Each structure stands twice: as C-alpha cells, then as structure tokens.
Amino acid sequence: MAAALALAAVAGSARAQAPADSVLAVSKGGTSLFRVNEDAAVVARGTFGVGAAPATGAGARMMWYPAKGAFRAGFATNTEWDPELVGDYSVALGYGGTASAPYTVALGAGTRASANYAVAMGRGSSASGQGSFAAGLNSYAYGVASLALGNSSTAAGDYSVALGNSTADGIGSVALGRSHSDSTGSAALGNGWARGRNALAFGGRADAFGVALGNSASTNGHIGAFVFGDASAGGLVNAAADNQVVFRAQRIWLGTTSTPVATSGRFLETSTGGYLSSGGTWTNSSDRNRKHGFMAVRGEEVLARLRQLPILTWSYRAEDGSVRHMGPTAQDFSAAFGLGADSVSIATVDADGVGLAAAQALEARTAAQAAEIRALRQSAAAQRQRMDALEARNAELEARLTRLEAALTASSAAAAPAVSAPRPR
Questions:
Q1: Which of the chain's ends, N or C, has fewer CB atoms near its CB within 10 Å?
Q2: Whether residue 182 has pLDDT greater than 50
Q3: Among the ranges given (23-37, 208-222, 228-242), the one the predictor scored with the smallest mean pLDDT
Q4: First to last CA, the chain
Q5: Which residues, listed in sequence order, are joined to residue 163 by a DSSP beta bridge?
Q6: What pLDDT, on a 0 to 100 scale, did the predictor assign at position 422?
C-alpha cells in the first residue's frame, strides 16, 4: 500500500508539472525527463555523459541512452548494446546491430558501424572506415569515405566504391557489377578486373593494367595498353606490348558525321570516302563530286620536273637503320610539283597522280616514236623496192651485155682468113 501511495504521489507530481496538453509527464528537480503529449508526440530528455545504460545484455527492447546520446530499438543478441559497444550519438535499429563509434548508424540484421560517421544497413554489412557506408547483404566498407552496396561487395580502399557483387581495393577505385579494381584510381564495370594504377576494365572478362573494354579483352599485364574486344568468337584478345592499342572488330567506322555505314568487303571505313578493304588494300577517296578546281596537266612538263627530282634511298629515324626505303623527300616533291597541304608529307594520291601523268607523257612519246618508226620503215621498204627493181634491171642489162660480147666474139672468129703452114726448105 505504501508503494502504491508513493507511485500515486509521483504521478500526481508529474501531472502537476506537465503542460496542459500532456497525457504523461515525468520530471526530476524541475527538469522534464519524459513527456507524452495528447497528439502522441513523445520526448525523452537526459544529460549527455551522465547516467548508466538503461539495460544491458541480450533481449528485445527500445532504449534511449542519454549519457551517450544514443538510441537502440529491436533485439540485442549479446552485448552489442552494452555501454562499451554504444558509440556517442549513435543509432542501432533492428536485430543485433552494432554502432560502436561516435555518430554511427546500424540498421537491419547483424550490421556493424565501427568508425566515426559510418553507416551500415541491410544484413551482415559492415562499415569500418571513417565516414563509410555499407548496405545490402554482407557488404563491407573498410576504406575511409568508402561505399559498398549490394551482395558481398567490398570497398577496401579509401574513397572507393563497390556496387553489386564487386571489390574495390585501390584508393579511389570503382567496381561495379561483378568486377574487381585493385589499384589506385582504377575502375571496373561488368565482369572486369582493373589491376593496374588508373586502369579501366569494362565488359565481360575484361582484364586491365591499362584499359580493357568489351568482351574478353585483356591488357595481358601490359601497362598503358588499351584493348577492345567485340562480341565475335575467338577467345581472349590480349595486348602484346606496353602502351599498345588493340581493337578486335569485324568492321570499324570513323567519321565526322552521324551516319555510319557498314559496307561489305570493307574493314575500316571513314566519312571521307577512304577505306581499308577486308583484303588489306587502302583506297583513297577520289569521287569527282568531292573535287573542284580542275586544271589540265602538261605531261612533258611533269617529265621535266620528275627528271630533276632527287630519288634517294633512306631510313626513317624511328626505324632501325637496316630498314631502307626509296623515294623523294616531301620538301623536294613539294618544290617540284607544288602539291599537297604542306612540305613535310606526300599524299599517296599526289604521288600516284605524278606517276600517271608521267606514264601518259611517256606513252605519248612512245606513240609518236612508233609512228615515226613506221614511217621510216615504210620509206625504207619503198627504197628497197626501188633498189630491187634497179638491181633487177642492172642484172638484165649485164646479161644482155654478156650475150652481145659473146656474139661479137663468135662473129670475129668466123671472118678471119685461114693461115697455111710454112713449107720446108
């Protein structure tokens, strides 16, 4: 009875001190500690750093802990809501959540926020890096200001991001999908693995120390390499050297327009009209409709300039000296013909044009010389006919002369007197 009277006295005192709109109010020494208003609003007060934990150990409860400015609601499985595991100004809601560092939040089942300003949500997720955020199923944010979301994602590097079922180990790294980014500044998307510093691996089975994009592309451990793999069959496409760019594609289009084409038999096409065929030949754009300012060419003048053009053998500075080439320098070619955009390069279409013009001029010369030779041959044949006729006439005259001489000789012999033999003495 005495206890009941004492409780009634306390309740009466509380009602006397409560505002008119309160259903229930509790105070001590003139300080309001707890109040429930008529509109169901609730306020519980306390003093930070003063007082013991309202409850400890396992069990279901809702707990306001003024001494730490912390709040717990749900079910404690063991000691995770005991004072040594309750961070200042922390919140843990759900089943077995631990918010052990200041300003942390743990929501869901078995989550753990153990560094200042960390947040863990979902089931079994843990945020142990300062300012980190982990959410989902068994996701872990270990790095400072890291973010891990999804199923078994891990953000281990400071400022890293892991989403899906990925692992981001490097500082400032990003891993999305079912990927892995190992090094500082690396990023992986899809089912890729970015191993090198600042590497990018995007796509299925992409593996990069540089950049690997697409399907089954790998930098093969080569730093600074860029590899793209299309979806065609053929297995893994690998870089063969550091700082190499590799594309596996059945067709490539490059251009400045928004209308790409895919012409059969062409491996590389451009909006300029030039293309590399599937057989390996480069074809320049030469459409009349793309040209203007036509001027005739004097073939003999081209030959004269070509005759003065130095043609040398040489090696490129970027190549080994044993690799030799033949041709003019761009400076000499430009001085001779004035073709091209500058004096340090030779367009193949210009070199081809000079060669064709020279060939035409030589063909014209050859045709003229052939005509002259035909005329000389005809003249020689006519002279030969005349000579043959003269020789025949001469032979006939010689034969007649021979017959006349023979006749004269015979006539002279018949007309001569007979000579008698001398008488003996």
A1: C
A2: yes
A3: 23-37
A4: 229
A5: 149, 176
A6: 63
Q: Regarding beta strands 200-208 and 211-214, do their DSSP bridges make them parallel or antiparallel, or are they unpaired?
A: parallel
Q: Which conformational region is residue 177 in: left (phi greater than 0), alpha (psi within -120 to 50 degrees), or beta?
A: left
CA separation for the pair 280, 309 (Å, rounded): 31
State which H helix or E strand residue 208 sits in.
strand 200-208
Cα 65 to Cα 46: distance, rounded to the nearest angstrom: 8
Please count the other Cβ atoms lying within 10 Å of the Cβ belonging to residue 356. 13
Distance CA 188, CA 155 (A): 13
Angle, vertex CA 415, rays to CA 412 and CA 416, nearest 5: 90
121: enclosing H helix or E strand: strand 119-123
Q: What is the pTM of this model?
A: 0.65
DSSP per-residue codes, 285-299:
---GGG--------H
Tell me the CA distances in angstroms from 276 to 41, 259, 279, one per residue in order: 77, 18, 8
Q: φ and ψ at 292, to 5 degrees?
A: -160, 175
Pairing assessment for the beta strands 282-283 and 312-314 based on DSSP bridges:
unpaired
- Give the other-Cβ count within 10 Å of 304's Cβ: 12
Closest CA to 193 of 237, 235, 203, 160: 203
Residues 102-144 pLDDT 10s: 999 999 999 999 999 999 999 999 999 999 999 999 999 999 9
Structure tokens at 284: 């320049």
Contact by Cβ (8 Å): 250, 262: no
Residue at 98: amino acid letter: T
Residue 387 is encoded by which pair of tokens?
Answer: 């000579």
pLDDT digits (tens, 9 = 90+) for 337-393: 999 999 999 999 999 999 999 999 999 999 999 999 999 999 999 999 999 999 999
Sign of CA dihedral 366, 372, 377, 378: positive
